[in-house]
């Protein structure tokens, strides 16, 4: 009578290890890229939500509403960076600065690690003003970049009517570059 042995040979074990190594080598970089892309999308959505909220509140309240960069979420600061946080408030006296008697509508703290947010707009790089009709004084673009993957950038573009849209390219069709 023959005795059957159960188990695997050394060759089948090595084959399994080689195939597993190849699959992991292919899968891990794409997983890191997916995580980076999702983190960037989350931040884009959070900022877009804050901008849309500010615009809606300006229309609802029939007042000027400002979103400004703020490191401490208590004061607007030209020296701070957008990724350090922002403040949304009703600007009663239209001085583009938060005063103690003005109503704070939203505060947002520091963005996720390795994320940079730049804003370029006519007039100011420190704030965006939404007028009572929901319009802004000028066009502007927020560029969001993950500093670990500079080829993966997104833009939030605000036009004068206050409409906000996202893009992965510049207005001339070329790819966004984190600078």
Describe the fold and architecture:
- The chain has 179 residues and is an alpha+beta fold.
- It contains 1 helix and 8 strands; from the N terminus they run H-E-E-E-E-E-E-E-E.
- The strands form 2 sheets. A 4-stranded antiparallel beta sheet has the order 3-2-1-5, with helices on one face.
- The chain is elongated.
Give a summary of the structure in a few sentences.
The chain is an alpha+beta fold. The chain has one helix and eight strands, in the order H-E-E-E-E-E-E-E-E.
| Biggest sheet character | 4 strands, antiparallel
Task: Please work out how many helical segments DSSP would assign.
Answer: 1
**DSSP helix fraction:** 25-40%
User: Count of DSSP E strands?
Assistant: 8
- Mean pLDDT score, rounded? 84
The helix/strand class is alpha+beta
Morphology: elongated
Topology pattern, helix = H, strand = E = HEEEEEEEE
Strand content: 25-35%
**C-alpha Rg, in Å?**
24 Å
Low-confidence stretches: none
The first-to-last residue Cα distance is 76 Å
Strand arrangement across the biggest beta sheet: 3-2-1-5
